[in-house]
## 1
Amino acid sequence: MITSLSHAQFSNDFFPVATETIMLSNTSTQWAKRVCHPIADTDEQWHSFLRALAIAGFEQWLNQGNTTLSITYPQNSAPQRDANIQVGDFQLCILPMGALKDDRVAIPAAVVTGENAAHLYVLVEVHEEVEQVRVLSGLRHDQLRQYLRQCGVEDNAGREATGGSGPQAPNFGGFESYPPQDWGARGASSQHGLFEKMSEGYVIPTSEFSVSPEKLLWYFNCLNPDVIVHTAVVRPGIGEIVTGHLDEAVNTVINTGKWLRGELDAVAEQLAWQLIPPSLELSYGLRDSSKGPLREKTSSILDDLRQQGVEVPEGATGACKEIRVGNVACEVYSLVWELPESGEWSLFVVLGPGTDEPLPAGLGLQVSDEVSVLSRSEVMPDAATTYLYVQAIGNLDEQFTVEIGSSDSETVNLPAFRFTPET
Amino acid sequence: MRVLTTAGKLGRRDFPKAQQLFKSSFEDEDIADLTDRACQDTLWRICQMGADNALIAQLCLRCWVSHQIVYTCIELAQRFGTTYGFQAEDLWPLVLDDDGKVPTTYQSSAMVILAGYDPSKAALSTWARRLTKNHSDINQFLLGLGLYRATPWAILNDTKAAQLSRFLPHLSESEVEIAAKLLGAYHRIYRMDRIAQQASRGQRCTTPTDEQLQRIDPVQPPNVVLAQLHDLAEQLRQSRVAARGGSLPSQSIDIHDYGEPAAPTPDDTEETQSEFLKTYRQNFLDTLGEAIQVTVEGYTAHYQKRKPSQGGVYRQALELFHCQGRSMGEIAKTLGLTNQVKVTRLLDLKKFRTQVCIYWLTKLKDQVQTDALEHMSVDELDAIADQLEQILTEETQAVMDEAASEAQIPKNRTANSVFARRICAVVPTLPLPPD
């Protein structure tokens, strides 16, 4: 009466206990039980419990061996899911993983944006029933932002921290406008899957967590945390406005250097920018309507600006694109030129209305380098503003980003601009 | 029935009454058509009817289950025995505990298997094998050797209802809804009880009691609820294991985890080394001894605080591994530690090396105080960290010349590296902690 046993799928559910595994001390487990005991909601209680075990285990791991790092977290209450622990000068968000691994993890929005943004997000495997914990890997804040940008999802810089109503779901509206194949290429299992639990925050594939536990130690000991979180939190201006999603893939960079030779670069072309017919006798008075309405329009804008004392040199070349910011149709003109004497280049961006309606009050345009906002301009109430413009000048290896938005609509980030004249 | 002899060997016991019942139950059937499943179902029905021969029919099933248990143990040993050092014989005493008495005098493993069985959910063979793999003593035994298998209850505890549709994509929407409801009810009852068990230190999640099962679903009989929960957990286990593409490394633990990164050829190193390391490489090598000393002392003091104190054991392990090139398994035996996992954990090699390098860089920053060091970017630090690791694994020319005289040191081990050489120069000179 004995059936032959199938080898398929047999016993692939036993796993080696990794040598980096930490055995939780009695103190750790008792503490976790004590602080989580009063939580009434059983679901919340359990997840707080796992989080507490993960934090206590992380502390044990940190203290093993020769270390002088200090770790701080509230001792008398259960750890909240959007609360950081502190290691030295670093803010850490500890993310527990259960008995069997998931391939994605949710990071609360409150520790991604705003004042409580963490420097590092650390995955910690928790085997509650055998009281074992293992520090798996980390993700730096800058890596997370980069990932979100690649997915076309900009995070809310600042708003939620000042909103005072606790963590909120970030606005992922519009992500469906991305072609599905893009999502496949980024490793998400389905277009919707990546954001299936938006209420929990940002859902990130665990494969993005690439910082080894040893590297975490290096960072804690030898790195200034400011190099990880800088622009994200402190950037003023439009950064304070809710930044919804990007309407363009900002991980790509537009090379304006090519424009000088009368061609669009591949990225700009793909994003449907239109080259403003070059050379630039688009300057004043030499308008030639046979060269197309676009140039005529550009020339007209530059004329207007010139009357306000704003000069764009004759060697400038540019491209134009229609965009929508919330309900407002706009046109963006980007003009670039080289400053050979100083080895620099200049980006000049003009924002104009896309219809006969003037730009609404509150709409802003700003240009930033990698560290800070360089220039910002905004439509003031009751002022007859036809165009907004900003300008940035930088070394040839610098690149600039441009944001357009207003306090009551989403913000649009244009792809970064760089200037590499090709030979 | 498969039983253990007093000598602990696998034996066989016959029960004439059971054989008789079996024969009489199936004498009208054509043997060729008789399937395991048909036999099980018939015997199971007789058990459930509670007639005079119900207990004998149950004995038949107990015999059958005992074979399943034996087979499961053999299979576990075939799969893991070589790597983790155990045999099927080591498992039998843990789980083969039916004494064959009618009526039963205690809850043997076979009785537990039968008590929770729901024929509508699975074949008895599947159920028996699953429960054998879930057997707490077997799990505890294997955990001691370094193999962990989550209990179904741990899996259910850690699964959120919202994850079900993703983890079990083959279920229909209504099936997911039913599963989510069951899981939610289980969570409310079981998790709270688990946290409330203050005394459950290091204890595996145990099978929910009938009382708990009743609270989870008051309408259905406990064994049905139990089977449903088991089924859900098993589906999750398979899906999440499959999703990871998980399979075990075939090598033993110390080889797997403690193979050093391959030493780079000198040319590569020259090219990839940053300006930083060109400047400070010599400083690193000159002060490596001090960094090792401080780190070893830190670890020794840390282990010395354990009860019983392990500072001395740590230092011996360090020397045996780096200076004498002994394997983790040998070191475990020499120092009286349970297994190689204990040794690897004690040596904590990766982190140890990192801490040595960190000590040096921190010290250098204090001494030099340049802007470049104070405001390193992540990439710069990453590069420095990786290059220091490389330097530690390099083999010096002098060492390679001596290699012939170091025949006792296995190839591809740390003993030839810059790091191991320096450890062996420093560690024996340090005072040992008091016993």
## 2
Amino acid sequence: MKGMIKKEITLSKKQMLLTVSMFAVFTALCILVRLSMECGNIADDAELRDHLMDNLWVLRYLPFVVLAFSYNPSLTLYGDIESGFLRLCKTTSYSIRSLIGTKVIMLLIFETCVFAVNAVYIVILSLIGGDEGIFSSMAVLLKMTLFFCAVLLLILFFSTVTEKKKTFEVALTAVVTLSGMAFEPFLINKMEKYSGRTDIDVLDLLRLELAPALKYILPLCVLLFISGVLLNIFVGARLLERRDG
Amino acid sequence: MNAIEISSLTKSYDGFKLDNISFNVPQGSIMGFIGQNGAGKTTTIKLLLGLIKRDSGSIKMLGLDNIEHEQEVKSQIAAVFDDIPFHDQLNAAQLSTVLADVFLQWDKAVYSEYLDRFNLPKKKKIGQLSKGMRMKLQIAAALSHHAKLLIMDEATTGLDPVVRNEILDIFLEYLQDDRNSILLSSHITSDLEKIADSVTFIDKGKILLTGVKDDIVGSYGVIKCKKSELKDIDKKDIISTRISDFGAETLVADRKLCEKKYSGITIDGTTLEEIMLFYVRRDKGEWTS
């Protein structure tokens, strides 16, 4: 498995470097904006400053938002298919389940690392800003991580189903479309209900409205995550092993 | 024991049918599997490797059914394709770490020896290697996990004569061990003339010839005569005839018999390439080159 994990890292190196660079740039920009809010142009504009202060909470999740995309198992699967490596594996006694399992494990390891980086980030921001919402932020981060992993695992599963080129775009489109169709009645209802209000007010109202359901989010994310793992290991791998024609 | 035993193998696609083919590859030998493009070589090889499902028939490799004992068979074979199945972003050294997970009996030392022998750079990305170097890398990988059977699909196609010669020498070395065997599919008959012990000729999904190469080449002959003399040759003896401005050349399957039958007519020896050329045009009867 060591060799296969190294392969996954090598194939994702470019993407990883890109996202780390983006994270560095975003962090630098955020520092500059924050400095400006204290002693720059933004400090002179009270309205803008207040608006930015209200939205600063999103920065707690900046590492995750940028770095989570550094590794995508579907893209490495396409690399395996397009290069002919998957075909080679099918001619050997190497289990395709192990191939998929390596990608799942790599995803878990990687996203755990991203979670850890973001967790440290949250702690640092909280210590600097005196924010006491560390644990609630960590809870949100955990749910985001689990949900994001579940989505990537679902896309990976779609890729094993079709085993064709460009399926990532198709799979992503399918996931987004299905999600949109599932949430459409809810979103339209809320848009009508909260039209005319500011975005901060809408978020607060939504949070209040969804509060009773929030306790189900973590178990739902865990369930989606576990389903994604099992689907890929037991169904996706089997589909990839199938003989053509 | 035969390394490969194919019996009544059939596979149908739209517009093509591998029709009830049977042939054996003796252990310790190299068989050339020849045919023109689209004859069914790659389909046969895919069936051997279990990449596609067969409609009927049986395949035994190293004495075991290739589906019922799939894992055991696959642990003892190595496949070499005409396009290299490795990621361009990896280099030869990284590839060794990856293949150590894929092949149970991966031998890093043997692999390293082959890299040195082929003068392959260990740190250069595979995508930056020339076609010849990539094929040598693939062959180095195939030979580095103690496989008993090599199955090669057009492995020498597109390579220059120097590289092809180098690779053919490696195959002969591999066969020094009697337990090793090679099935080499190619339409470059000159390579097979050099190293094959036996040949199987496939055309339009059917096996036309199979047997010891020297026996096949020795038994066929080409009658060279004038066009007017063609009528003296029994049509049953003729595979097909090539007509040119200088006369006619007719391929016959039994040279010795024809030498007795048609005294006074020149019957020359032939090559695998000529046998292939005359056979694929057998439906036309007479043809011009």
## 3
Amino acid sequence: MPHFTVTIEETGETYRCSDQHSLLAGMEALGRKGIPVGCRGGGCGVCKVEVLDGAIRTRAMSREHVSVDDEAGGRVLACRATPQTDIRLRVLGKMKRAVCQGAAAESTTTSQMTGD
Amino acid sequence: MAMTGVLRPGHAQLRVLDMEESVKFYTEVMGLIDMGRDAQGRAYFKCWDERDHHSIVLRQADRAGMDFFAFKVLDQATLDQYERDLKEYGVATERMPAGEMLNTGERVRFKIPTGHTIELYAEKKDVGNGMAYTNPEAWVPNLPGIAPIRMDHCLIYGGDIDGNRDLFEKVFGFSLVERIKLEDGTTDLATWLTCSAKAHDIAMVRHSEDDKLHHVSFRLESWEQVLRAADLMSMHRVSIDAGPTRHGVTRGTTIYFFDPSGNRLETFCGGYDFYPDMQPLTWTWDNVGAGVFYHDRKLNERFLAVVT
């Protein structure tokens, strides 16, 4: 199966991802970081990215997090997008933190950009 | 305590992004029994040991999450009384007609302070658990998938969880079983409530957005079954969130995982029996990690942030 190079703009991190895996699954399988990991099913919205260069194929994802305009503009959930070419992307999603600033602080200050 | 008012969680209606994929997941991986579709295209399922017609309803939608969560009450008179009690408490109610949901009687629908829609109903067709009502066998053999015995509880996220607790306690007589306090030592981050002798029938976490689902939970009968469920999830490439591990709160063993639309589910076992004379257990802020994940003793970031 074809593999493509995915580059995360902010960190310069790159990884190889097949056209059979989502951008998120490809990252996770190699233990790489950069895109926040949530439900992996298109429902929660935390892995939203903007594809700056390259072509993707997408599956259904929650309209609560990805509008029609978003989708047309390449702003999609990484768990529902598979690469068709090399990809350069920017991370848009983040873990929503509510009353638990303190709680999550221990884990999130170090992991905000690491995805876990 | 003789249970007379609210008996137990009865059904949850979940939104899914792809019905065909979801039906396959809920039957083949979860091992729920397919109980058919209605005219709106909703799909109905039950766990094998449940006797009523269904406990999970799936609706195709463009976003994930939970439409509503329902409790079964003792009988029609109890349903009518609760509707009066809700109105007296100041909550608007709506009657969903019998038959709007397959094999289900009238439902009383209302919103709780966190924005979630809750339903009460008294009647749902008894279809049995696959074994006889006279001289039954011990269990049903050759069930596919994880095959939990019942849909057990849910955990919801929203703002005014204090208002929720007041309503469930005052109108329906629920008891507070456990709570986690925020850093100020006063405010509840989370509460676990029961209407029965279970450790929880519904739980809630304070959150910036209303009407969010954290998980719907399914009960297994042993820790070994929980491990077997994790094996099946890996075989089917299910998205696992956390576990197998144990919760400090309720002492239940658990796996958090996601359905194909990103709705978090739990398969769990255990927990202790609660009676209304027992005082609630409290977890302090510095032990929140152990309260949620007893072995790791720290929260994963997703616990507080990933909801549908």
